[in-house]
What we know:
By secondary structure, the chain is of the alpha/beta class.
Amino acid sequence: MVRLADLSEIEREHHLERLKQIPPMPVPQLVAGPALSQRRVALITTAGLHARADAPFDTTGNGTDYRVIVDQTDDADLVMSHMSVNFDRTGFQSDCNVVFPLARLKELAAEKFIGSVARFHYSFMGAIWPTTKYEAKARELADLLKRDQVDAVVLSPV
């Protein structure tokens, strides 16, 4: 990821101006649940990942589509669809767990730190505008998580 200090002045000002347009977010209501050692955990990332056989993300669309990544997907079969020249993929190319820590999650399950790893995980394209309406997709994704009996997620914003 490029730092603001490394951008040209006009590019830096452009990004800082966009920050002013981000809508305020309400404080979420948190609820208690079972101990982490009893939770089924899924990953949700904005790394623009998909399996090699899946269609790449459409960067001209509304940005609310996602890809399902099955827990048995091999790291070498994951592709990152981010298109920005300001995005550095070298961490992902060296170790997929930098943006999609599925192996680390499986280790936590093996150590009984978490209850289990979900069968399905989800990836969105992160290079989208924050005012995009996500409610319909969020409800759809919540239903998929419930079907997989997920009661905790690790969010991996990229």
